[in-house]
Amino acid sequence: MMARSYNGFIMTMTLTKQDLQAIKSIVDESVDESKIQTAAGFAELHDKFDYLEAEVSEVKQIVQRTERVLLNEVDRNNQQDKALLKIRNTLRAV
What is the signed CA dihedral for 51, 55, 61, 64, rounded to 10 degrees? Predict the structure, then answer.
């Protein structure tokens, strides 16, 4: 039953089964569209997360390679320092 006010008088209107079915179909279509939009939104977010995970993985690999290069350089510098120290000590002994 639907109530309406007209010039201060409340009038009622009974909804038929057809009216209720029409309302239901409109609501169902709206809900279905909302579900589709929500699912599409989640799919888009999932794709973005996959992309970002791939980017982060690539950055991690670059950092690991850079760390290895840096450690190799530190080792090389340490070896050079030891060699220079030997040369210095040898020259001082002469």
Answer: -140
